[in-house]
């Protein structure tokens, strides 16, 4: 398998970023002679986040990066030896040392796809031992990425297409890499960029930013600019002394507004002058509060305005209201930490081993899994609108457009019939036996795909509060398999 | 400055893991000729998290690791050049290339200390440009670490000292490094260990774990163990065929319990046999639900029981109730993502520059900062109980035990007097001009210190719901400085 070029990829998620029980289970499989048995896992979520009816799939690029670099180093194996029972056979550690993902195949929803409960975001197949070890890192990489992308998509739906949305929550993120993930996937979900420089450098996210309060606070007004002279923007004509200009204008503006010339703070003014001298083509003032209408100065209404400070869905809805003069909205904590639901709760479940379907039997119907190696399709109406998603056994022929299908919607007791005008396969083969099958789309392409996907969802499903639930249905054969395995299992 | 040995340190938080406006402000300071001006920032929070009255300080070890490795590489500077204005002087980038933390001094609360609103967790002083650039990464490293440690401490208070608490939320963490941070600092806050292997390898957190459902699901009952023979634990006597033994016992147990021999699932049994063969000295069964009392088998009550599954503060309180037979409690999402409040909201504020105190003047009294280079002390009663924390100017003499002090509690309009029996300085000098002054305590030492610190807090402040707020007060001189600067500023 080709080595990963990005050194950061390996550091962010290493093979030992996993739960110890994955390693103990690996030993259990190995001792039972089952390490190489063919197995398939599915990664999915059970409920859409934030009370909505959709999620965006994301994180695949990090998973692929992780799989391609997956290799236990000597120090990793030695550490595992130190925490596993002392009588563990050296041959087991030899097995671990030789482990890579060259036997692993991954099918997945393209990043930016709409994802619904129970539909696999990832299907991972390969030798039982290694695909078991992948559980925790893949969950960690997909869950939060998809949560963030979905959160960003909701905020974009609220803001509408025109407002510029900037993610600026790095300082509030749950750990440094949480910040990098958040910046990357909020962009995928529909933001315009981030303040996070590393996300620009490593992931190509557009970065933006101007100044913060400490810059303003750092000036007292006693500072003397080393060079207060500013050339005209056009590049011709004499340079002007900006600091002196500001003093002249200050008097005129204060007189016009009926303020005393001492009222504006000299430190604030010195900071703005210093900033304007440093960024003559990208000046930005910074105010704690603003009111462009307070002073009845009409041209102020044409100044682009950026706002930030604890903006959540409700506050954003107010800012996005028609006629709002705000142009750019910076959002931190509420996009990055997803306070309304800080985890997506993805699971990674065994669906087949040794070619036989497997199903988790439990008294809790929500925790029951769907057995067997599966395919997934999206059925569409004649107008291109989404009807429902279908899960069926991999060996079944794909649904045909124009043909009537009998299906079992999840959670319903009755079957239904559907005649789709179009059928789209949902899962693509990205990695086959450790080899990348096609280049992943760029982050910007996935971002565009996310917006396209969302535009095809009906308003009833796209609605953020109390939406209609989107249906996921089983083929008759898959439903029959579920019934058969359920009958075999405990009560 | 000595190079950082841990390669992971550099990868997790690099210099460009910062907001772009830190870089634009750096350029602003540089053009204003102020890059080298002496500045001091304080990192603190304004409100205790989770509705409690305390927080635990954490994250210092990551900050020190970050500072020691801080150095912009060529690629970093080139990336900054690509996003800053094209006419930026090459000399600015030369300045960045030469930048390190050799001029930076850090005072901080030791990790595991009780922290209260407005008391600095970190004081960072050095050249204005570089200490400004440190803002975002330091906030990112301290905020989440302290949030997690505090969350873990609350869960420990609920569980009591006897239950074993295991963090197992890696799959739910906000990004891979979020998981590593959570595992590290939940241990510091009072957990016994984590399932996260990487936290064991890199940070020395005790790791634990047994098996998950996929192991059970992977067995059908048709598997034949390669070697079903088990030697006696004492090491003497003949080996027994465990698989055959289990079948014999199954019949006897079923007869005793009045169950049909077909009722127990053969796959589950095969999985447990395989696990027992792999871990004869550390067998653990795995059940979806359990009831040791259902079958009236007295010895079952002596089996150690571990539970997990969506355990939050309320559920933990039920499990911790007297007489609960649970021994080990695994907690995932609710310790790692802190759903009740997923960010601590620390801020990093300029308090002095060029030897002059600075204060952010704002209409929002909560956002007003405390000016000047400060010292912080904890005043204690004769019985060692905590009375209050005092902030004063660095140049003031420390409060003396037994002497009456006049203080201004924050948020109060009146001063008060206190006569402490003991006085403890809170902030320690860890890094002076880039040099580590003393080794940081180990993670286990910080963990013990956290428990000691919590034990000295009065029950009224330690209470998790509606606690009494712990007082932080200003010295008379600091209060006078605040009043003076407030009078100078805008209305």
From TrEMBL, chains A, B:
Gene3D superfamilies: Aldolase class I, nicotinate phosphoribosyltransferase. Belongs to the NAPRTase family. Pathway: Cofactor biosynthesis; NAD(+) biosynthesis; nicotinate D-ribonucleotide from nicotinate: step 1/1. One of its GO terms (biological process) is NAD+ biosynthetic process. This is Nicotinate phosphoribosyltransferase. It comes from Sus scrofa. Catalyzes the first step in the biosynthesis of NAD from nicotinic acid, the ATP-dependent synthesis of beta-nicotinate D-ribonucleotide from nicotinate and 5-phospho-D-ribose 1-phosphate. Helps prevent cellular oxidative stress via its role in NAD biosynthesis. It is found in: Cytoplasm, Cytosol. The gene is NAPRT.
